[in-house]
């Protein structure tokens, strides 16, 4: 059989290894100058026009972001159910209640109408996810937020470099969190980067990250240890120099799929949106699980299902809500390998396999 095509593959080169070695040799490995430089470079690289704060994971970034934005116990935060559990987990960790709204059929991101229908007098924020690297409908969500006096917060974990109407994701909300986990569009090993809309949110993020201290042993609030190490920051700084080329490769691979796939529904891109294809997710209306199994067993092609169980049905949440488009997406979604390591030959293999199988199934 042809060699296995993995659904994701982190890219670590000599430059990253040398950067780690440089930090190790310096003898200073905890949060320090590399983290500070990474924060500045990240904000500049993605044109965020605001400050960034680095933390030890994307989930920490959401949690600290929520706390710093003033989300309090008893608050309700509207989130999609069709996302990774970290979105709702972070809301719950902040003591607030995640309220699950439905998604848009095309973009897989929060549906503004469903969001508005979910608002109560306890709602304080809306936290869309730019799922798969496609921006959520930020102008519509901002309009609703303004009408009801709510904050908009961004889970941009999967969307480094995505934009809408020329504005990069992460520059819309009170904060925007980018994950730096190895399978994301760029990595620091583990890590998260949070862009912040105000000096006050930035100040609180930095306090919560470091046990509530700005000055050593003068603790101002109850905080965490959510610091990023200089080792991780050094990896992230190198990855920043490569991420544009990787994104372009993802977009080229996606364009190839769009042009050649048959029998499945390719992911549409909204007007004025730049999609960075963290995942290339098609809809399979007839036996998605069968197609995934056949791709694996007959063609040695790995795929992903993000996400097979909507969050509102997970054990910690169990919310009684009716989210038909979320349920359908959970049944139909299938992510094909689109990452920068997939070669042209492999792209052709994937297209041939999907088209053969989808035709046989039709
Ligand atoms: C990966 C991810 C997170 C969490 O990021 P970590 O760095 O893994 O903690 C949050 N939300 C979404 C949508 C993600 O994909």
Automatic annotation (TrEMBL):
Family of this protein: Belongs to the DegT/DnrJ/EryC1 family.
Residue ranges of coiled coil: none
Enzyme class: transferase
Modified residues (N6-(pyridoxal phosphate)lysine): 184
GO biological process: polysaccharide biosynthetic process
Entry-linked CDD domains: AHBA_syn
Keywords: Aminotransferase, Pyridoxal phosphate, Transferase
EC number assigned by the record: 2.6.1.90
PANTHER family: DTDP-4-AMINO-4,6-DIDEOXYGALACTOSE TRANSAMINASE, TRANSAMINASE
Superkingdom assignment: Bacteria
Protein name: dTDP-3-amino-3,6-dideoxy-alpha-D-galactopyranose transaminase
A single MF term (Gene Ontology): pyridoxal phosphate binding
Active-site annotation: 184 (proton acceptor)
The protein's required cofactors: pyridoxal 5'-phosphate
